[in-house]
Amino acid sequence: QVHLVESGGGLVQAGGSLRLSCAASGRTLSNYAMGWSRQAPGKEREFVAHISWSGGNTYYADSVKGRFTISRDNTKNQMYLQMNSLKPEDTAVYYCAASRFTIVPGTLDYADWGQGTQVTVSS
User: Fold this and answer.
1) Nearest-angstrom CA–CA distance, 9 and 18
2) What is the pLDDT of residue 61?
3) Dihedral of CA 83/91/64/97: which sign?
4) pLDDT at 5
5) What angle do CA 115, 117, 122 make, to 5 degrees?
6) Given phi > 0 = left and psi -120 to 50 = alpha, else beta, which region is 54?
7) Which of 48, 68, 107, 113 could form a disulfide with 36 if both were Cys (CB 3.0 to 4.6 A apart)?
8) pLDDT of the residue at 70
9) What is the Cα–Cα distance from 94 to 81, expressed in whole angstroms?
10) Residue 107 CA to chain centroid, in angstroms?
């Protein structure tokens, strides 16, 4: 099992940017596919972005495509989510997740999850 900790959340005005980080311990991340998801109040958790173990393949939800960028640095055991042009509807708790096994991008079938970091976008 890999232990994941998110950071970088906060309050930002609409149109602003934030960069989320996900730090891993307990395992080497280079063997894991990883992703970000989010959950807004009163809504189900939804997929945001996915990145393959090498970083060579990425996949995004339509709602964030062109605004968010997922990346990873396996040498630092970290994953990132650069969020630009933020909108009030992006307000949610953001979770990072990892899977040692192949999963279908766009799903939430990750085995390991962090505790989440709050992102609030004001209008």
Assistant:
1) 7
2) 98
3) positive
4) 97
5) 155
6) alpha
7) 48
8) 98
9) 10
10) 13
Q: Which residue has the tokens 């939804």?
A: 46
Contact 77, 55 (CB under 8 A): no
Q: DSSP letters along 44-93, please? A: --EEEEEE-TTS--EEE-TTTTTTEEEEEETTTTEEEEEE-S--GGG-EE
Mark the ranges of the chain whose per-residue pLDDT is less than 50: none
- The backbone torsions φ and ψ at residue 6, rounded to the nearest 5 degrees and listed phi first, read -90, 155
Overall size of the chain counted in residues: 123
Cα four-point dihedral sign 110, 112, 49, 36: positive
Let me know the angle formed at the C-alpha of 17 by 42 and 109, rounded to the nearest 5 degrees.
Answer: 45
